[in-house]
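TL;DR need structure tokens for one chain.
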Amino acid sequence: MAGTKGIHDGHRARMWERFQENGAEGFQDHELLEMLLYFVIRRGNTNETAHRLLKEFSSLRGVMNASPGALCAVEGVGEKTAEYLNFVNSFYTRCEVADVQKQSLKMFDDRVRYFVARLSSCKEENLCIACLDTSLRVIRCSELIKGTFNHVMIEPFTVVSYILRSPCHAVIMAHNHPEGKAMPSFEDVETTYYLASMLKFFSVELIDHVIVADNRGCSMLKTGIFHPDKIKSNFFHP
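>> reply
TL;DR here they are.
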């Protein structure tokens, strides 16, 4: 048993030496995951566990986004390991959000990156609302409505009430498609125009709607699916 520990300890030391010399360059995904598991699995061969995780969840992103229950179903992964991976993913997501939140959301790429950071790890549909100042910087942003695995019920008056509590100039909304594509459905487009019309009545501009799926994002304004010039503010009076 002691000999086995010595073999694994020597392997881990060599892996860290490689990392210190070259960084992540030259490492395959399973090797990086293997090393991440060192911090929670203190002894033993984490290489095999890393291979099993990648086989089950297809990618590093898939592993990190997996629920603790799904992770525990993989041989070699216990509750502590699942909780650790879940925490690391949440910590990384918070860092991404904190980084992009300092930026203006004027540019399409910044918008997509911002909402991908917030929503890509969600297992169910979420509606996210970013309230912006006159420079299109985020005043506040919340996952306002949580839905089921593949559907979120948007309540327009709940959304408008939240927005009007912020002294905002404009709004960008976003939601995710956990098992779909980063493209809006017919219902998404219809709801976007309805909400834009409601907000225009209160002199708040809805400037974009971003759809997030599979770590990608789609700006409805950039694609031309959403046209602000077509918004009317007479929804109270058909």
